[in-house]
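Justification of computing resources. Each target in the renewal requires a structure prediction run like the one illustrated here; the chain below, 191 residues long, is used simply to show the kind of job we budget for.
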Amino acid sequence: LLASKEIASRLYYWLIALEMFHAHPLTGVGYGHYNLLFWDYVNLFQQSDDGPFYEFVLTDIVRGVPPGFAHNDYLQFAAEGGVAVVGAWLALWSALLCQGWETARAAARAGDARGHLMASAFTAAFVAMAVDALFNFPFHIPASQFLFWAMLGAWVLFRAEVAPRTAQANQTATARGSWPNKALAGRVRRP
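Resulting structure tokens:
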């Protein structure tokens, strides 16, 4: 992997972000300070036992130019904001992906093809953004950040519209004796 200059430089940027997080796990180094403190942490890292192995990255690839970003939004948030920021960020992603999955399944069970398609499309778009943030910095680019927040707002509106429909249809199916109730009816023993 280190034979590719692009991959080697990104791995090095990630290592420096992890060094920053390791040094300041609770509060991080401060928003926007990854780039400002990059060379300080490079000097510290190069003095460690692993530092000489990465010397070629500094001489052949980076060549004195700070990276600007860690090229991984999760690591950059960890380095700059600490555990609380990463926890909040991961909680947001967990909620989005779980809601997307749940809404798509509920719409499918309710026979709402439009709702199923829309929930699946929103979920796929959120997954694409989350994966992109592993190797890039979309949440530090204003256009990408705007797209995310606009899409999140549209998701909230869509979910508010489709959730009552799917809940009502699923309650009706349960009351009529849908397959889970029929399957469990023979297995439940009453005293």
